[in-house]
Amino acid sequence: VQLQASGGGLVQAGDSLRLSCAASGRTVITLVMAWFRQAPGKEREFVAGLRKSGTSTYADSVKGRFTFSRDIAKNTVYLQMNSLKPEDTATYYCAAKVSEYFADYTYWGQGTLVTVSS
Fold first, then answer.
1. Which long-range contacts (CB under 8 A, 24 or more apart) does 36-41 make?
2. 12-36 residue pLDDT tens
3. 86 and 111 in contact (C-beta within 8 Å)?
4. Beta bridge partner(s), residue 12
5. Alpha-carbon distance 33 to 84, whole Å?
6. Quick one: CA dihedral 59, 67, 19, 3, positive or negative?
7. Which of 3, 10, 43, 113 is packed most tightly, with the most Cβ within 10 A?
8. DSSP readout, 14-32?
């Protein structure tokens, strides 16, 4: 499985941005997907997850602002980020695993940088 993330950029606080993660080698409906982020000097943190069923979960810090979705026809998942804050600045990574029973994500994209200016 290969994951290709894109969509990062420089925006102002309050703006919106949509990240994409295109998967190859396996259909996204057969994968548990997630977005993580890592800010400079900080540990990587979970942002949002998408179960095979389509159910999404979110970190408290982004709940109500971010939406995780998928387009099965395009084999791509998206992270719609609204009301962005400077503290959302980080490199965002999409990740995948084949089973919800796996603790760790097996497949990782290359990361896309999101910078939110105040």
1. 36/92, 36/93, 36/95, 36/105, 37/88, 37/90, 37/91, 37/92, 37/93, 37/114, 38/90, 38/91, 38/93, 39/87, 39/89, 39/90, 39/91
2. 999 999 999 999 999 999 999 999 9
3. no
4. 117
5. 22
6. positive
7. 3
8. T--EEEEEEEESS-GGGSE
